[in-house]
Amino acid sequence: MTERPLTVLVAGGSAPSGIAVARALAQAGVTVYTVGSDSTRIAAAAEAAGSGVTPLTCDLASLPAVRELHREVTRTAGMIDGVIHLVGGWRGARDITDQSDEDWDFLESSSVTTLRNITRVFYGDLVASETGRFAMVSSTFVTAPSAAAASYAAVKAAAEAWTMAMAEGFRRDQLQGAKQGQGEPELPGQPELHGEPELHSAAVVLVVKALVDPAMRSRQPERKFPGYTDVDDLAAAVVGLFEKPAAQLNGQRILLTR
Question: What total number of domains does the chain contain?
């Protein structure tokens, strides 16, 4: 990690993936805030994740609520170094013609609106951090969409596009900051800036076919779950984001399927 303890926000912390990610980060020495919309569920999830994980309740689809979340976290933890976006859900259909408005509204709100809100509010923290990281979980359906999963694939594609725009924002803002910090080479011997400076923030997309957890395996012991990503493997990948240089990660679409 880094010499300074990191603080990371896990959005969508009530799900098995959120518990696994929060646990892995805490075990790596990170201060973790895990966020969910239901206070009872997120408290239970934080307890399951172990020590070093603090539960917070917030409707991430509400921009004012996310702004209040930011104020609450920064009052106690200061700057946030990472946001891991695990909010989402699945809705499918039979074909293009029966993609319902209700399913679209649910998917857009959970996968896109929550991501837009949390990144707009926490962007300043992430771009200022020496180890700023943002990650979202996307789907293989984005590059191989089916008619049955049209709405799901479309909202995941939108979330990916927003994340790639964040990656460009990190490059732009940190290049601009380096130029301003260096100033114009007016004095003899003052170095000029050539090319991009070293990035310290990164936005990435983690791609899975689907996620599997121990409870799913126990309910269907005969099933092999081919191509699925175990939530513990997802958690290990998230921890690894804070151990690699930002320049290697920023704007990358990382496939986690087996």
Answer: 1
